[in-house]
Amino acid sequence: MSFKEKIIESKLPLHIAIIMDGNGRWAKKQGEGRVFGHSHGVDAVRAAAEAAAELGVKYLTLYAFSTENWNRPKNEVDALMHLFVETITNEISTLNKNNIRLNAIGDLKSLPEENYRKLQETIDETSSNDRMMLTLAMSYSSRWEITEAVKNILEDFKVNKVQTNDVTEELFSQYLNTADIPDPELLIRTSGEMRISNFLLWQIAYTELYFSPKLWPEFTKEDLYEAIVDYQNRERRFGLTSEQIKS
User: Fold this and answer.
1) What pLDDT, on the 0 to 100 scale, is given for residue 244?
2) Can you give the C-alpha Rg of the chain in angstroms?
3) Active site residue ranges
């Protein structure tokens, strides 16, 4: 029986987040430069998005480019930005065909002008799609996001829009980039690395973590299905005991 056949539809995670890691190492294994790995990583993005949408996952968030990635060699960053524009342009028809809405979080204004413009165009052109929301975390880091949320709360405090006693977990969440997105139930990281790398730190408080040894360009639909089956076999207690959950 394939992993897809083992998936229980009623226990499907509403939101899956993925840290796509290993493009550079995969390229090195092929005797190629890092950009070669990034270009092949696009195929894995397409496969994961299609698989998630076909299953009925409503939200898929991909860590595409962190604020720390700006510190990589300039030629790699420039190539990534070019690849991003090319991919976004080519995938509009695929997104619409699959009824997938594109969204983005992060310090988007820090992107090169052409990248920001193409991203916004694609978001606009897919805004009426409602099968699944595909969110790209671009120029994103969780510490940046949390810092920005605090700044915005303080600005609202100055003009009496927020009072001290108003600040709750729920209100704070509304100041995050993900205000309109439910927290992920499942976070997948590829390449065998077992860390979160500054991704959705607030949102993953009770998220199940799954670490795949596959490098991102090797990650297939079947690997996604395997991660979901593993998630469905776990007991999610949210601070309760097993006995409380069972009763």
Assistant:
1) 60
2) 19
3) 21, 69
